[in-house]
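Methods — Computational structure assignment.
A single polypeptide chain was analysed. Its primary sequence is given first, followed by the predicted tertiary structure written as structure tokens.
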Amino acid sequence: MDLRSAFAARLTDPFLSESLFDHLSDIVYFVKDDAGRYVVVNETLVKRCGKKKKSELIGKNASDLFDDATGARFLEQDLALIRSRAPLVNELERHPYTAHSSGWCLTTKLPLSDPQGNVIGLVGMSRDLQSPGDDASDLNRLAQLIEHAKTHLDQPLRVNAFAKQVGMSNYQLDRRCREVYGVSPSQLILQLRMGAAATKLRQTRDPILSIALDVGYSDQSAFTRQFRRTFGVSPGKYRG
């Protein structure tokens, strides 16, 4: 037994991190089962759902706790991740802060597996990017650009045109993108292309050339070189 496994075996509480996240008021933390039901939550999530106790959330899914559109979106996202096994990393999305306000958050969700490799749920967190009442105009525009990029990955995506499209200067877009994601807009676009390609490789049997075209590459060799630089393996090996 390695050190990690030996240490984990000595823990009395496998959800020890719950206590840590209870002290972070700008982060929502949760663990869900394979039906999208909350198993572990932190106090921040309890308050944002307008509840008083964690027990009021346990066993319920997002659709039970949030309004129709928001709850349905969160639940669909959870179930899609569990089906695909594909992590959701740094997703810019709008979350309810209270019953009367909302704000932009950066969400990451990762699948959880049992010893046999079956996905049995997910763990996730959402980090606030603004405080209630803060000006969110730059984040609104950044979200518009990201959504546009995701639905047009097969087309040329030029940062200059992006900035002009939403009334931001190149400097403003670059600064905001680096603040939120830690990368430049062009690097973010590359991440979106590679992330979409990885998902298609795992979830479909589409030819690699078709996937390359879908994410904006005009030939398979250029796509393969970039994919290998990003993931360390060729698209074919990644697919398995």
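Note: Residues 227 and 233 are 7 Å apart (CA to CA).
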